[in-house]
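> tool_call: predict_assembly(chains=three)
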Amino acid sequence: MSGDHLHNDSQIEADFRLNDSHKHKDKHKDREHRHKEHKKDKDKDREKSKHSNSEHKDSEKKHKEKEKTKHKDGSSEKHKDKHKDRDKERRKEEKIRAAGDAKIKKEKENGFSSPPRIKDEPEDDGYFAPPKEDIKPLKRLRDEDDADYKPKKIKTEDIKKEKKRKSEEEEVIWNLIGEDLFTKQGDHLMSLCHVFERWEEERYPEGIKWKFLEHKGPVFAPPYEPLPESVKFYYDGKVMKLSPKAEEVATFFAKMLDHEYTTKEIFRKNFFKDWRKEMTNDEKNTITNLSKCDFTQMSQYFKAQSEARKQMSKEEKLVHDNKVTWLVSWTENIQGSIKYIMLNPSSRIKGEKDWQKYETARRLKKCVDKIRNQYREDWKSKEMKVRQRAVALYFIDKVGTELDGQEYVVEFDFPGKDSIRYYNKVPVEKRVFKNLQLFMENKQPEDDLFDRLNTGILNKHLQDLMEGLTAKVFRTYNASITLQQQLKELTAPDENVPAKILSYNRANRAVAILCNHQRAPPKTFEKSMMNLQSKIDAKKDQLADARRDLKSAKADAKVMKDAKTK
DNA sequence: ACCTTAACTTAGTATCGTAGCC
DNA sequence: GGCTACGATACTAAGTTAAGGT
């Protein structure tokens, strides 16, 4: 959700209601969207896998180095987890690298500088597009949402109870099976078999089989990874290098070599027929008899792989990291920064966080007076560090409060976000002004004004003042309280809706100014403005015409009247 | 103590979809 | 049916914050 001021608590609630009440329409939209997304994702996935080898040895080296240090000093649980992730990743990378240097070279020319890390499970051979958690869970059904909205902590206690209840139920069901279903015992049995209840609920009118379908996205198989060079295929006793497609199909057969199926004539015939479809002409000419094919090396290779998988520890098998919220990450190739794919703002994970943000701001409301009093006191502190901290905190908190007289004015001039110049003259309290003068004593222009202060000191102080307090919270708080005050001031209960909307927009604008929101005029702005102006002009002309007509009509009427009376 | 980085938030522009108008 | 305006959504650069590294 964007803009602090745009979402106070009541609005968040409203947002959820909106989703709920619109779920049908939205679902439809969502489906369409996902359809598109899948296509995109599919393409993306192909791209990613194409580029996945462009991974740098650099980052791997880094990982290894990190690992070393961490093990030495005994890292936290969380970090151990990360290690496992990295280990896994490294293994993946190594595997991929083994696939061939030529490929790497080619792919280095392309954009990606790291293979995307996708949070799925290794056992899962399918690619998810979109990833398992819907990329756009925007309009999920309410009940679904509710289900995972609740639990901050799922107590093991509850799970145990639930398990116990289930097993007791099961026992009763087993005891009742065989009973006459039309007796009370039967009713009891039916009531315990929840699956019947569900069918009961979902019964549709005669002939109607479904009301809507939800597309959760197709599962795409990962692109085929060729076998390592060392794994040979033999035809008629001679080594034969298969084309990638033929090799891929051959692996299906190789993987089930131990199965009885492969001895069945019909099965062998069917497989061979399908296999030939993927062979090159040369292969078709050479491979004419399935019995002369030797898949044993392939078979052994896959057996060894599955054995290795079994050897992995429980933790290794768990690929996911439930300490983070992103679905996919990769290293961007220009700045080397990390990019993420995260959930939509309307997802539980984001919505809950956003809600928490406002809860923190509400907590600040309770102690903000105390905090303000304290930093005012600290302006007089003997300790320079405390004074600097207090002045800094004042600027973090201060939101254009009007002061009597403009005696003490501070001029701000610095590159702000997006390197946009921030230039403003702000009236401040006398003590702040005097303190700033003090901080400037014996300093060159390039010296730090707050030389005794750093983020660590300030943040620590904020934490001490209130748990969870950071600089951002002041902004959220001040924006929210301003919106509330403005709404109170500008709106009247008996106003009509357009008037209320106008008042709301005005209140919102006040907050936008407070937060220094800037927006370029839209490209079509001037054109729209001109259209509006020409409409106004046309109306004015019309009005003038009408006036003229009225005047002459009146004159006519007078003449007529005179004539009539006459 | 200072610097770097991962993970997340914020806030901007771009684009899409659709209602309403002609 | 085309055009426009406008709200919703998508996309993403550039912030913040906390934790880790040197």
